[in-house]
Amino acid sequence: MDLLATTQEGANGRLSGRSAAWRSRVPAPFGVFVAVVILATALIIFAPIIIMFVRTLFPHGSLNTQAFMDAFTRPGLAAAVLNSAIIVVVVNLTAVPVGTLFAWLNFRTNARLGPLASLLPILPLLLPSVAVTIGWVFLGSDESGFLTVAAKTLLGLFGITVERMPVHIFSWPGLLMLYFLEIMPVVYVIVGAAYRSVDSSLEEAARINGSGVIKTFLTVSVPIVRPAILLSMLLASVLAIGIYSIPAIVGSTAKIPTLSVHLVRLLNGEFPPRIDQAAVISLFLIVLFGALWILQQRLNAFARYAQIGGQGLKSASILLSRPACIVARTAMFGYIVVISVLPVLALLLVALQPYWTPEVDVRVLSFDNFIPLLSDHQSRTAIINSMLLGVVGSLITLFVAAVVMIYAISRGGTWEKFVGVLTKLPAALSHLVIAAGIVIGFGGAPLFLANSILILGIAYFVLYIPKASIAAEAAFRQVGPQLSEASRISGAGGARTLWRIVLPLMLPGLAAGWALIFASIVGELTASVILAGPHNPVMGYLIMTNYEAGTYSQLAALATVIAVMSGLTVSITMAIARPKFSTFTSP
Questions:
Q1: Bridge partners for 109 per DSSP
Q2: Which of 201, 192, 280, 185 is nearest to 239 (CA)?
Q3: Eight-state DSSP code of residue 269
């Protein structure tokens, strides 16, 4: 009997072992859900780009060489490419050095702005690019700009009569200034984060050995963050080519064509749309951005640097002289005024005037221009659509990013690398390329999503999944894996651990990420101009319609509404989710 019982127990043990092994091979429901989400995300990102190229460049199974001939021989392309190349070069020669210098001043010297340093990276979100551009049109127009007329009046007091200012917003200097204001904070964020993670011992050693402040900055401080600087140069180049609001509003009036405006006109400015030519230009941009990325990786590979970090990280301040501190703080504070205070004041003044005039008469100021935003059907629909897309789109985008990033980081290895590349890949593509791919891939058969809100939601999801994944990854890594591991050890499944433990702890960081994505969607212009229309208007489309119609007071009222909505949302979330933004405060 004992032998029989022992044999039976052994058989039962083998059966239970096999059952446990079988259950371990069967994926958990949460894992299946995450896999489906990852697959759907990959399809949404890759499908429109692939469909665009297959349909337009291989319409009958063979290469459409005529599309290449038409695209590259089209009038205006050479000038657009040349001007875009000039903008890229100038942006890299101005925004990258200044952004690096501001980051060094705030994170390495006693000239730091303190709490104001946290405003530098988020100011473009408090006031979206299109609002900054329109505000500076009202400030620097060669005939009716507030600053231009004030400068003419001031010169007139000294007996100097100027009919036309040599420098104004509708010129190369004005255009390049707006690009600088838009892109410099991107450099500041990337390089500033690098300085926070690098020990200051090398800079202290250089100072002890007799190196001056400038020599230490050039020979030590800059080389130790070289990878971050190279990355910021890559992103600055991508942004400089892809930005549409600045060249559409300022460049078109100044007769400075750019590649972004050229591509939008192919898709949205002609009938029928030149989709095949747009696909060729998009392919050219993808190859260009890929080449820039490979170059950046090669430069990083050849560079010799060491990153020193850890819990014992030391970041002592380099002491600047009092005059140098005053100059540095004045320059950084001046940037804040130029990118936020002055454009907002200009927008508000024009919005309160019956018509745009540089002569401000307090007696005629009123809120009459804001009334059509509520009474006009298209304006009201555009505001509702933008708010709906901003709230719901940012929630969906952030939820998807949080779920897949938490799962991938918890699994580690190949999963983490794959999901990281997948969710951040759209950041390497221009908004123009993504919008063109979506309108070609999803606008026609079999989905027929053209002129719908859904196609805009898909576009915003693809455009801002990189920001959402960065926010979710940062929030999860700040929480750490200890509590989630303890939850799983206690028997909780992946879904329960996510809802009861991980997400509540990540809430401050996720809330801040939601506000940033919301502000980006509400103020988005590039994809909106291509994908929106009278049947699915959004604020970006309405802004361009009013600008082309010359209704500047209503245009200013709309831009003011965008600025107020974005500013209030991001500012309130900053107060609620302070840990997210503390990353950028001075050490």
A1: 318
A2: 185
A3: S
Structure tokens at 386: 């933008």
**What residues have CB less than 8 Å from 292, skipping those under 6 apart?**
234, 237, 238
Which has more confidence, 573 or 146?
A: 146
Q: Rounded CA gap, 59 and 77, in Å?
A: 24
Residues 187, 100: contact at Cβ < 8 Å? yes
Q: Pick from 287, 231, 281: which is nearest to 259 by CA? A: 281
Q: DSSP alpha helices (H): ranges in 109-171? A: 123-126, 129-140, 146-157
Range of the domain at 435: 29-60+367-587
Number of domains in the chain: 1
CA-based nearest residue to 470, from 570, 535, 416, 402: 402
CA distance linking residue 32 with residue 154, whole number of Å: 70
Report if residue 348 sits inside a domain.
Answer: no
Q: Taking the model in full, what pTM does it have?
A: 0.77
- Strands (DSSP E) contained in 223-375 are none
pLDDT surpasses 50 at 397: yes
Residue 400 near residue 37, CB atoms below 8 Å: yes
Give exposure, 449-481, as e/b (b: 16+ Cβ within 10 Å): beebbebbbbbbbbbbbbbbbbbbbbbbeebee
Euclidean distance between CA atoms 464 and 429, whole angstroms? 12
Q: Is the pLDDT of residue 311 over 50?
A: no
Q: What percent of the chain has pLDDT over 70?
A: 79
pLDDT of res. 284: 81
State the pLDDT confidence band at 307, using cuts at 50, 70 and 90. very low
Instruction: Taking residues 247-253, report their average pLDDT.
Output: 88
Closest CA to 519 of 137, 130, 176, 242: 130
Q: What is the CATH number of the domain that holds 434?
A: 1.10.3720.10
